[in-house]
């Protein structure tokens, strides 16, 4: 059984009543999104020459700026179109389908507390493919380029420089990039 305790514009707070594998009753608190789409979010891993394109974005729940991937909530089921739209709005960079190198599977962002699922898209853009941002009134986002070489160190340095937090998905990605660098040596 599941009961909705609070329903906001974007998020719902639920209590889920279940039995665990030991047949013990458990009450689990969780968040869900109010979307019918099978993919609720999209994140863009964008390579610009030898750099990774990131956002420095004000995130009100942590009362700080956060280094993260460009992306956001999907408004329809075409995840690539939504990702390219978010990329242009948030960074000003214009991507195209022909430069998409990978479309990841649907993954859960934080399954211990949320039903939210997203997809990652990898692509390359040229430095010259940049125009103005198209931010919504509440958005406070600046694009930033970081060298892919030594990405975890670059992220931590930029975090200190900007007094910003680092999104866990971005840091996990950076660990993978660094692992790949070490494996090639």
Task: Please provide a written account of the structure.
This is Nudix hydrolase domain-containing protein. InterPro entries: NUDIX_hydrolase-like_dom_sf. It comes from Stentor coeruleus. By secondary structure, the protein is of the alpha+beta class. The protein has two domains: 1-34, no CATH class; 36-184, Nucleoside Triphosphate Pyrophosphohydrolase, CATH 3.90.79.10. It has three helices and twelve strands. It has helices at 79-91, 151-162, 168-184, and strands spanning 2-7, 11-19, 25-33, 41-48, 51-59, 64-68, 71-73, 100-103, 107-108, 117-125, 141-147, 165-166. The strands form two sheets. Strands 4, 5, 6, 7, 8, 9, 10, 11 and 12 form a nine-stranded mixed β-sheet that branches. The longest helix is centred in the C-terminal third of the chain and has 17 residues, at 168-184. The radius of gyration is 18 Å and the shape is globular. The model has no long low-confidence stretch (mean pLDDT 93).
What's the quick description here?
The chain has helices at residues 79-91, 151-162, 168-184, and strands at 2-7, 11-19, 25-33, 41-48, 51-59, 64-68, 71-73, 100-103, 107-108, 117-125, 141-147, 165-166. It is α+β, with helices and mostly antiparallel strands and 185 residues long.
Keywords, separated by commas or semicolons:
single chain, 185 residues, alpha+beta, Nucleoside Triphosphate Pyrophosphohydrolase, 2 domains, nine-stranded mixed beta sheet, 12 strands
């Amino acid at each position: 059984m599941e009961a909705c305790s609070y329903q906001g514009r974007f998020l719902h707070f639920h209590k889920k009543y279940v039995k665990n594998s030991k047949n013990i009753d458990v009450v689990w608190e969780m968040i869900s999104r109010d979307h019918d789409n099978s993919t609720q979010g999209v994140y863009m891993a964008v390579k610009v020459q030898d750099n990774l394109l990131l956002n420095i974005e004000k995130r009100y729940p942590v009362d700080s700026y956060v280094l993260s991937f460009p992306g956001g909530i999907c408004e329809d089921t075409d995840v690539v179109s939504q990702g390219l739209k978010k990329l242009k709005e948030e960074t000003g960079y214009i991507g195209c389908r022909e430069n998409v190198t990978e479309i990841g599977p649907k993954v859960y962002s934080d399954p211990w507390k949320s039903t939210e699922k997203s997809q990652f898209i990898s692509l390359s853009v040229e430095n010259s493919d940049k125009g103005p941002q198209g931010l919504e009134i509440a958005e406070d986002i600046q694009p930033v380029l970081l060298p892919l070489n030594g990405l975890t160190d670059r992220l931590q340095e930029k975090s200190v420089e900007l007094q910003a937090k680092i999104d866990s998905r971005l840091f996990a990605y950076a660990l993978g990039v660094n692992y790949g660098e070490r494996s090639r040596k």
